[in-house]
Amino acid sequence: MKVQPFKNTQRIIIDPGEYYVTRRKEVISTLLGSCVSACLFDPVNQVFGMNHFLLAYRFHAHNMPIIQSEEGRYGIYAMELLINDMMKMGANKLHLKAKCFGGGNVLKLREDRENKNTVGDVNVLFIKEFLKNERIPIVGSCLGGNHGRNVHFVGTDYSVFIKKIGDQQERLLENEERRYWKQSIDEREKTQSSADFW
After folding, report:
1. Phi and psi dihedrals of 95, rounded to 5?
2. How many angstroms separate the CA atoms of 148 and 119, rounded?
3. What is the CATH number of the domain that holds 118?
4. Domains in the chain, number
5. Which of 15, 55, 111, 153 is 20 to 30 A from 27, comparing alpha carbons?
6. Per-residue pLDDT reduced to its tens digit, 62-104
7. Bridge-based pairing state of the strands 97-102 and 138-143
8. Strand arrangement, sheet containing 2-6
9. What is the DSSP string of 109-158?
10. Environment class of residue 59 by beta-carbon count within 10 Å: exposed (0-12), middle (13-18) or buried (19+)?
11. pTM
12. Domain of 56, in residue numbers
């Protein structure tokens, strides 16, 4: 997480696996490819926050809701951290609204050519299903596609500004996400193998 001065406030830049919650009139920013960010806000109690997550799977069993599946665990954790911290800061879950971004096909993995879900597709499916189950309305979104996005969530009026990133930045983002994605798979496999021992 980085903090930069921005006009008469500050910009908080979050990376994959991070989240940030505030009551101040700040700007929360992130760079998304296959990852998804949920921008949640409670306009009544004036609390808002953003997370940035990438599920450690490329596809899921179609006969099972994704939030009940193995691959949904990390996304659930990322969402619960964000929601719980917002409630600690005074938000009421009944007032929460969401704007969701990301899930672009920037990793270009083998599944794309086999017409299976990509990493971004699975992230998009997850966030829609999670918010529907939690009865948090999505009031704005820009999900899927084939490009990365810069996302800026503004605390004065909860507006979100997005900008498509250029080719050079997208190549850097693809390499960074690939490393992060492989690391999350390794951590999941390590956790599963250690759970097998008594």
Report:
1. -95, -5
2. 13
3. 3.30.1330.200
4. 1
5. 55
6. 555 555 555 556 788 889 999 999 999 999 999 999 999 998 8
7. parallel
8. 2-6, 9-13, 27-32, 149-154, 160-164
9. -GGGGGTPPPHHHHHHHHHHHHHHHTT--EEEEEE-SSS-EEEEEETTT-
10. middle
11. 0.79
12. 2-195
